[in-house]
Amino acid sequence: MPVVSLTVNNKPVSKDVAPNTLLVQFLRDELGLTGTHVGCDTSQCGACVIHLDGAPVKSCTLLAIQADQCAVTTIEGLAPEGGGLHPMQQAFREHHGLQCGFCTPGMVMTAVALARTTPHLAEADIRHGLEGNLCRCTGYQNIVDAVLAGSQAMRETK
Amino acid sequence: MYEFDYHKPVDVAGALETSGGSDDGLFLAGGQTIITVMKQRLAMPSDVIDLNAIDDLCGIRVKEDVISIGAMCRHADVASHSDVRRLIPGLADLAGKIGDPHVRNRGTLGGSIANNDPAADYPAAVVALGATVHTNLRDIAAGDFFTDLFETALKDSELIIRVTFPVPEKSAYEKILNPASRFAMVGVFVSQSVAGVRVAVTGAGPCVFQLPEMEDALMRSFSASALEKISINPGGLNSDLHGSAEYRAHLIGVAARRAVTNAC
User: Fold this and answer.
1) Domain A3-77 falls in which CATH fold?
2) Would you tell me which CATH number, out of the four given (3.90.180.10, 3.30.43.10, 1.25.40.10, 3.10.20.30), belongs to the domain B1-53?
3) Residue among B98, B90, B50 nearest B74 (CA)
4) Does ipTM surpass 0.90 in this model?
5) Closest chain A residue to B76 measured between Cα atoms?
6) Tell me: the pLDDT tens digits for A6-34?
């Protein structure tokens, strides 16, 4: 069985992996990082979004072995070590950007990447940037509010 | 997903050698279609040959009046490339309208056109811009490349290396998308260049096609009003739960007029 070596949330990981293992399965089943969710499994809902070398991608549409030598960040890796929440997580909490919470990890990972590439986000940028993330509870309004506040907080904490 | 052997060659020769030595090898580009297809067990390759480590398939080069885009260039890279945006704004705009941000971070030009999904965006640009598809074996004109539903002129073990796009005077892509899948219900790419006017339609039929009647009208007058009297025959167009053939025929006219108005 081939070996995949990568860093996950800044920690080196090296494990045997069957080639037909999806990255999301590897993260959840092999590493126990169940914050990354499997929603649709057909690359539409975005609940499985992680950062691969900094870029947000759907981990259900990537083989684990393709992440060899890459840096992966999951929702578990966002918050600062030693406690507290990432500013985007805090903003989702304060602005009621979630109800059932299933889509939230993917929403937050997408939002963080969006705020990093476009520091001064307008509402339209956020709605366009979240096109790959589906939420069936909130109607999106509070998510958009949260991302706006979270991106501002990220700028201020830089 | 069925089991397969995984390979990650670092050059084109290695990819072709692995493909040639496999029972039923599959090239993996961005994977935004094929990995889902494999998950659904609709494909059972013996070997998956990952193209993501091959530098020769990457990069965007600008030479005089031509932009050459590597087969493994991702949609996000094309959408944000300053020279593509400046010289062929319609192409950059199209790349930025594919799928969603995550799909654009993985999906590739080569993968999209090799798959030739009837609702994919890139085929419209390749045809309307009169691009050339360069493979390890030959150069294929856009008009000869897309042959039918999910079918192309590519042979077994033929690999797309790059696609070259002549720079037009004006171009624009107008996409009327399915809000759920984000595929094109109808997408129309219009280009105007010294070679003439081309209008290519995706999403509406089994395969990308040109509209000679619109092209002739736009050659006489490149304006939306020149298209107003042209009606599209719905015969042979796609009809599904998202829209009838008649609806798509109507959308072609709407999208074409918008594209001409926005062309720059």
Assistant:
1) Ubiquitin-like (UB roll) (3.10.20)
2) 3.30.43.10
3) B98
4) yes
5) A55
6) 999 999 999 999 999 999 999 999 999 99
